[in-house]
Amino acid sequence: MDGPNETVRKAATSARMYDFYLGGAHNFAADRQAALKVIEQYPAVPAVARANRAFLGRAVRFLADAGVRQFLDIGSGIPTVGNVHEIAQRAAPDARVVYVDIDPVAVAESRELLHGNDRATAIHGDLRDPKAIVANQGLLDVTRPVAVVLAAVLHFVPDDTQAYGLVDELLAVLPAGSHLVVSHGAAETFGLGDERTAAARAVYTRQTSTAGKPRTKQEVERFFGSRCALVDPGVTWAPDWRPAAGDPTDFAYDTRRSGMWAAVGLVQAA
Ligand SMILES: C[S@@+](CC[C@H](N)C(=O)[O-])C[C@H]1O[C@@H](n2cnc3c(N)ncnc32)[C@H](O)[C@@H]1O
């Protein structure tokens, strides 16, 4: 069990570090210190976070325009610019959104932002227990299609059996016509086994309770399994997934540097 020193060492969280990368204000000294250690190894990490947010925005807009009206955003993080409910409800005011996060600060901030919005809510939940999330979410009709958003969160489930198993479990309870949105840290970028990769990953392992594991393009494809048909253009670097005007230009010179795989799949009949 963690002693008091361990509790202090692990005081950072991935949600608040990510908030810091994005220039947000909902982070503490321990989060900033841990995030700066990662940035020291990978100066591009804030740009990676921006590229990821931009992909998320385009994916939600694409789905809302295609008629999707229910979103389950797991590992949703601390609210920032371009949250799922803002994009979805701008396109379709009747869209319903449930945010789920393991970090109580993320849940509290989301609830505050959603005050007065009866078509969006935030709950505390663990991606590794998808049945409990589906049972507790309370707003979505899961007998009808739902878009499950797993943006930059599956790499915080390092155990492969657990990671692929939980996605299969989620897909099994959702009807055909549902969607799966995934973005995922790339092993091609962050899994090189060199010193700086090891140092950056050690920050998450030692200072947060969410160790990280990047995966290859093929491993990300595997999340869509046999039940999903990948929406065009398949699994791509985040900036390459249906790029749009106004996207960040950080990786315009080489999208492979974005370090994040991204894709959307359509759930097929079993
Ligand atoms: C990098 S942030 C991504 C936030 C947002 N999805 C985005 O893409 O902008 C990862 C989020 O996943 C959450 N998270 C990590 N492990 C989780 C788990 N097992 N269950 C639910 N949320 C988790 C963290 O608390 C954090 O808010």
Automatic annotation (TrEMBL):
Name the UniProt key words of this record, in alphabetical order.
Methyltransferase, Transferase
A GO biological process this protein is involved in? methylation
Pfam families this protein is in?
Methyltransf_19 (PF04672)
- This protein's superkingdom? Bacteria
Show the stretches that span the lipid bilayer. none
- A molecular-function term among this protein's GO annotations: methyltransferase activity
List the protein's name. O-Methyltransferase involved in polyketide biosynthesis
